[in-house]
Specification:
The protein is α/β, with parallel strands linked by helices. It contains 10 helices and 14 strands. The chain binds phosphoenolpyruvate and manganese (II) ion.
């Protein structure tokens, strides 16, 4: 249930109302937007008398939220969420460009790529240390050592880093990581989501291969319910009957998610199509559709990449793409 307060409600009146609602055994989430202040009531609101609250002098209106996701819901928080990642921002018009290799392979590789993507305009470095490969015989990532190398690249370039967590037991290795990624395969690992809800790190949450938009939002809700509200939603392509591309980019997920939720939404064109030459058009489509950022795989030697070489851009292709993304952004503003 959400309670929209009148503009002239004082902080004292608001405080009294919050106290009273809490005394009924509910939690209150306060959201002060540009145009209105909203109280989100969390818990079992079935017994709450809507008319009683609506009758209070400081209350504009009361609405029951029928969707199961509350904290991620735009009705709860009218303005777009915006938060800092290092010295960068994401959300509410701030577009974040994330780039880097699928996997960290060596110090030279990650530092070289980090330097090139930074020069091209990337604001965050990606790189997998723990890799969820389909085959157990494929490269599984450099694990803890991979995170150490990402930190070296961060030190060298100043770029914040994002890397994927696959298991709760690895959480302590992520102490200096700026953003923790939950990959598509772990989108519904509820215990992992709950644990990340207790951390103070932004989470990049990827949509599961066969998950609906609402399931993605429910997974975000798991993290938010624990108190961590800095979540970036990522559409990375879903499984369909189509086999021409690795997955099918659901571009409509951008406006749909942005209508349903206040959280920033980014696109991963690389995993969506699996083929480097399609990454450019999908990225430009993402920018045109109003995404808040992109996460693109870039490798200095895609032919030799230990993972996802066929979908990785070369640094010069990425640099060219960033220029075009900026033009698309200017065109739609
Ligand atoms: C990745 O970003 O490296 C990755 C494995 O992506 P996804 O979880 O979307 O498959
Ligand atoms: Mn990859």
């Amino acid at each position: 249930m959400i309670v929209v307060l009148k503009k002239d409600a004082t902080i004292e009146q608001r405080g009294d109302l919050i106290e009273w609602i809490k005394s009924l055994g509910l939690d209150v989430h306060l959201s002060e937007g540009k145009f209105q202040t909203v109280l989100g009531l969390i818990g079992d609101t079935a017994g709450i008398d809507t008319e009683l609250i609506e009758g209070l002098s400081i209350v504009e209106k009361v609405t029951r939220i029928t969707e199961q996701f509350k904290k991620a819901n735009r009705k709860f928080h009218d303005d777009d969420s915006v938060f800092d990642i290092g010295s960068e921002k994401i959300g509410d018009g701030n577009f974040l460009i994330i780039a880097g290799p699928c996997s960290v392979e060596s110090e030279e590789q990650i530092c070289d790529i980090a330097g090139s993507v930074k020069k091209a305009g990337a604001q965050m470095l990606r790189g997998g240390a723990f890799k969820p490969r389909t085959s157990p015989y494929d490269f599984q990532g450099m694990r803890g050592e991979g995170i150490e190398l990402l930190l070296k690249a961060k030190k060298l370039t100043g770029l914040p880093i994002v890397t994927e967590i696959m298991d709760l037991s690895h959480l302590e290795l992520f102490g200096e990581v700026d953003v923790i990624q939950v990959g598509a395969r772990n989108m519904q690992n509820m215990e992992l989501l709950k644990a990340l809800g207790k951390t103070d790190k932004p989470v990049l949450l990827k949509r599961g291969l066969s998950s609906t938009v609402r399931e993605l939002l429910m997974s975000a809700e798991y993290i938010m319910a624990g108190g961590n509200e800095r979540i970036i939603l990522c559409e990375r392509g879903i499984r369909t009957f189509e086999t021409a591309t690795r997955n099918t980019l659901d571009i409509a997920a951008v406006p749909v998610l942005k209508e349903l939720s206040h959280l920033p939404v980014i696109i991963d064109p690389s995993h969506a199509c699996g083929i480097a030459r399609y990454v450019r058009p999908l990225t430009l489509a993402a920018a045109a559709a109003g995404a808040d950022g992109i996460i693109v795989e870039v490798h200095n030697n895609p032919e030799r990449a230990l993972c996802d070489g066929p979908q990785s851009l070369k640094p010069e292709q990425f640099a060219d793409l960033v220029k075009s993304v900026k033009k698309v952004r200017e065109a739609i503003l």
